[in-house]
Design brief:
CATH architecture: Roll
CATH superfamily: Hotdog Thioesterase
Strand order of the largest sheet: 1-3-4-5-2-7-10-9-8-6
Shape: globular
Oligomer: single chain
Helix content: 10-25%
Largest sheet: 10 strands, antiparallel
CATH topology: Thiol Ester Dehydrase, Chain A
Order of helices and strands: EHHEEEEEHHHEEEE
Structural class: alpha+beta
């Protein structure tokens, strides 16, 4: 059967998931951190307590507790990540256990595609720890005459130079490290599967470039302190090819909010393109 619009409001059963210090370290190196960020990449450096990147919740319990099983059928090779937000109610501990509950909160008919929105809430010791909201863009799954959903400009940066600009270079093999945090989708490693999705080569996980972005925002805007990082949201505008350079630009708009974009430049040179837009960071 195709997508089922009546799935909106469906909730998963609560599921308990845990992570360890090692999981947090593996995620850190998966989003490019290394010797300059020992608080996030080691657990035994002298007088440097381990910290966790604020975007780590996107991989906690990957594939478990999802409500997506209720939405009907679709071709996974034609699915790409649309948007993602993470709201932190308190800093993520180095190790812990949470109870996850997910809900399908929207399903929109874009004509030749569909967008499915889900929200996952995490409780630790009965109190909120974080909330993830993500959308999936599914090519070929629209056309049932449903609501098109929200659209139009959002979080548009001002027409002036950015307040901060950070560039990171992704490794040609970045996806092979990032996938070990949970997302084993062959779109990111298997050329044949990537070709089925219309790509000339495997693309980097959108949430990996999202992690690179959050990492840059943490250091540039939040003083490298996860306690200052409250919320991040953005839209995936274009795929990243492993080996691309990512440039994150940030504009302060006051009241603890900054707007951002992430652009990619090919390793072999070429034109810069926006890969994450509609970016908003809330911070202390």
């Amino acid at each position: 059967m195709p997508l089922n619009p009546d799935a909106v409001g469906s909730k998963s059963e609560p599921v308990e998931v845990s992570w360890t210090s090692k999981d947090a370290l593996l995620y850190a190196v998966g989003i490019g951190a290394g010797h300059e960020e020992l608080a996030f990449t080691t657990e035994n450096s002298n007088e440097i307590p381990q910290l966790v990147f604020p975007t780590f919740p996107v991989v906690v319990g990957w594939g478990r507790g999802s409500a997506m099983g209720s939405i009907g059928t679709f071709n996974p090779a034609l699915l790409v990540h649309g948007q993602q937000s993470v709201t932190l109610h308190r800093p993520i501990p180095v190790a812990g256990t949470v109870t996850l509950t997910s809900e399908i909160t929207g399903m929109y008919d874009k004509g030749k595609a569909a967008v499915v929105v889900s929200e996952t809430r995490a409780l630790m010791d009965g109190e909120p720890l974080y909330t993830n909201t993500g959308s999936s863009f599914m090519r070929g799954e629209g056309g049932w005459g449903g609501d098109r959903g929200p659209s139009g400009p959002k979080n548009v940066p001002p027409e002036r130079s950015a307040d901060h600009e950070v560039t990171y270079v992704t490794d040609r093999d970045q996806a092979f490290v990032y996938r070990l945090s949970g997302d084993r989708n062959p779109l990111h490693t298997d050329p044949a599967f990537a070709a089925m999705g219309g790509f000339d080569t495997p693309i980097l996980h959108g949430l990996c470039s999202y992690g690179f972005t959050g990492r840059a925002l943490l250091h540039a805007v939040c003083g490298s302190d996860p306690a200052n990082f409250r919320h991040i949201e953005g839209r995936f505008a274009s795929p990243v090819i492993p080996g691309d350079s990512l440039t994150i630009r940030t504009w302060s708009i006051g009241d603890g909010e900054s707007l951002f974009t992430t652009s990619a430049t090919p390793a072999a040179g070429g034109e810069e393109r926006i890969v994450i837009d509609q970016g908003l960071l809330r911070h202390a």
